[in-house]
Amino acid sequence: MQITLSAIKADVGSIGGHTRPSEEMLDAVGMLLQKNIDSGLLIDGTVTFTGDDIAIIFSHRHGVNNAKIHVGFAWEAFLAAAKVAEAQGNYGAGQDLLVDAPSGNVRGAGPGVAEIEFELDAKSEYRPAESFMIFAGDKCAPGAFNLPLYLTFTDPMHNGGLLLNPKMHLGWTITIIDMDHKGEADDRIIRLDVPERSWDVAALLQNPDRYAVESIHSRYKPHEQVVSVAATRLHNIAGKYTGKDDPIAIIRNQGIFPAPEEIIEPYATVNQIISGDARGSHNMPQLPVPVNTAVTGPYCHPIISAIGFSMNHEGKFAERYVDFFDNQAWDYARHLSQRRAAEIRRQGFFGIAMAQQTEIAYTGLVNTWKQLDDEFEFRKS
Ligand code: 13P
Ligand code: 13P
Ligand code: MG
Ligand code: MG
Ligand code: MG
Ligand code: MG
Fold it and tell me: Which ligand places an atom closest to the C-alpha of 300?
């Protein structure tokens, strides 16, 4: 059976500042999810949050970028939660709903979309059922998954499965998107096969504010997509700073794909510093946290959650997901991240403590620079 897995997220309001959505907002989304499961539009699904972003994770049979799914369900669900947020006086009601009424699909309208369509066959010799993970970030840039994905899919020092599993040893095709491309409707993408082109992949992913991994496919079964990342930059839609992009990713695991321990390894060993944080304009290390965690850390220390699901060949989820970072195994990584965060915060706004110039260009700081420009004078030397 052909199944589509969708993970669509949006910030439509939060309590006491940009911390987390209210229970009533989550209930509004959950009710529409259930209604659409009952009507047969969707097969199964669940609602979570990571900081102030609500994620709807669900299965259906309508393919990627489907209007009934994106607009008829997801947009309507976020709209319902935004109305609750408005009635409750929550901060930033409807923040990520950047257009009046999206036509067709919600890509480019504000919400982040990760989607993969695949065949599930109970008799398949290599994939009789599905096992997948959802990663969600808050207070961070869409390139936040670049480094962890690079390490998992190209570096045996972080993923020994690339040596141990002959199907993974054949490598991957990585699709990278140029998030700054401002053409009409067309995206600017490049497809690179690894391991041969690993250093070319590295050369692009080095700049996570412009280039992001959008998808990864197996080279053992080239039609099998293992990764989908929501990689858009909100300021390119809105033309100004409207909050951080806060990406979401689907990563299928086990069998012909990496095992969960190989996918989460970089979050323990590398603890990368990423752009985002307070006003989306600083650089701080990511903090692995349980799903449904509010952002209350100093200076919006950016958070990442990771949950795992099983799905049967009919697209039904096992009743519970597993929460990877909700475990004391991650306390040490959290401690290292907090220590690194405190170190970089000591230099306040200077140099690399603030995000790079292209990010800051969408903030009010440029107005001050423009005003000061007029006060500059030329001096003969
Ligand atoms: P289990 O025996 O616990 O399933 O271990 C599987 C494994 O190989 C871990 O990568
Ligand atoms: P989000 O609302 O996109 O999470 O980010 C808000 C922000 O700018 C943090 O200071
Ligand atoms: Mg917010
Ligand atoms: Mg957010
Ligand atoms: Mg945001
Ligand atoms: Mg086992």
Answer: 2
Ligand 5 centre to CA of 241 (Å) is 10
Q: What is the pLDDT of residue 183?
A: 66
139 in ligand 2 pocket by Cβ < 6 Å?
yes
| Orientation angle between helical segments 331-345 and 260-269, nearest 10 degrees | 40
Q: Report d(CA 151, CA 147) in Å as an integer.
A: 6
User: In 31-89, where do the E strands start and end?
Assistant: 42-50, 53-60
Report the percent of the chain where pLDDT is more than 90. Answer: 86
CB 300 within 8 A of CB 176: no
d(CA 138, CA 53): 7
Nearest CA to 56 out of 65, 67, 69, 47 is that of 47
245 is in an annotated binding site: yes
Which tens digit of pLDDT belongs to each residue from 93-133? 999 999 988 888 998 899 999 999 999 999 998 898 999 99
CA distance readout (Å), 168 to 52, 128, 267 = 36, 18, 21
3-state DSSP call for residue 88? Answer: helix
**CA 41 vs CA 3, 34, 222: distances in Å:** 12, 10, 29
Question: Which of 226, 336, 220 minimizes the C-alpha distance to 270?
Answer: 336
Q: What is the ipTM of this complex?
A: 0.91
| Rounded-to-integer distance, Cα 142 and Cα 188, Å | 16
How far does the centroid of ligand 2 lie from the alpha carbon of residue 140, in Å?
A: 8
* 299 is known to lie in a ligand binding site: no
**184 confidence band (pLDDT: 50, 70, 90):** low
Residue 323, CA atoms < 13 Å, CB-side half-sphere: 16
Rounded Cα gap, residues 156 and 134, in angstroms = 23
Encode pLDDT of 4-38 as tens digits: 999 999 999 999 999 999 999 999 999 999 999 99
pLDDT score, position 186: 78
Question: Can you tell me the mean pLDDT for 214-232?
Answer: 96
